[in-house]
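Researcher: Good morning. I'm working through a list of sequences from a screen, and I'd like to move beyond sequence-only analysis. For each chain I'm collecting a predicted structure so we can compare shapes side by side. This is the next one on the list. No need for commentary yet; just the structure.
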Amino acid sequence: MNDSVSASPKLPAPILRLAFRPMFFLGTLFSTLLMAWWVFFWLFPFNWQPYGGPIWWHSHEMLFGFGSAIVGGFLLTAVQNWTGVPGIKGPLLAVLAGSWLLGRGLIAFGASLPAVLVLIGDVLYLVMVAAAMAYPVIKAKMWRNLMFVPMLLMLALLNVASHVGIVRGDLGLSMSAIHGAVFVITLMIVIIGGRVVPFFTANGLGVPRVEAIRWVDAVSIISLLILLVSAFVGFSTLNAVFLAFVSLVAALANGYRFWRWQFWLCGKVPLLWSLHFAYAFVPFGFLTLFLYFINVVPTLSIALHALTVGAIGGMILSMISRVSLGHMGRPLKPVKIMSLAFGLILVSAIARVVIPWLFPSFTNVGIALAGVFWVLAYGIFCVVYGADFWKPRPDGRPG
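Model: Good morning. Structure tokens for this chain:
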């Protein structure tokens, strides 16, 4: 994506010129450190009791911490291109980033604070992102993109529900809310992926753009929405045959989309093959979910991690690498080591799913390896891109 808004005579510090800069920087650094800590704790457990407990903390912070940072940074950057309305920047952007940091601090160190204070502080960021997203869309009357506002608010409400579950001691509610959040972010990937994957492929390779088949897209989204609602209600309370059927439909519909986008043409373009193969984990994740509901895959965690590590982790790494280059005024050709990072995140997903599934006695090894590969992948991104977020564009334009 390219910056389409004319230069301003007074520019804030580079890190505060567009939302992707602070949020990608903070989100990727946070996920690297969080995952490194999680691997250490998993291999060498000790008496550590963060707010909500270790399992909740890991799940919550990877979704509502890391995931929401990237989602906010991406949407608030993209909406400027979509609407032509200047994006949030300067002091307002600093407040937004500060609200995200507040949530992370409260979750990390707020175990002794009133739960309502932790809840409000943590949810504030997503509400602010939703408001910042709604303003330019409504102003420009670009109603097609208004759908992301209720998705952001849905994430915020799921976050609230997850906190309420912790306060009430209702682990089922807190984890159902987290499971729901997995499907909300996956829904965003399915919608945005349907727009950008064929577009980027056509532009990058000089081939005709693959046009969407509306009914296939509709089936992809509707089946995902059913799973989203089912996840929050609680998979264990619903009919397994019904859930298996919906999961299989979601896998087939998204698998067909993936195939039509001609992934086999992209082998020499890292920013494309990384995008395609990350999206492949969407149908793979739904297929794994189907196998869970028919008692082939032993745990729900295995199926969900195909989505969280492969689809979400992989798509985020590929997209932010591209978005960052484009909006920082640099050629869309990442340095060679980023190809290693793209490969590592996919290997991380395979390790997290396949080893616990097929070699259950080595589950701890699989989880640790997946975490190490994640740290390496996102660590490479932080090293390659981190300093550039603080630097102005070489062409002097805002962004």
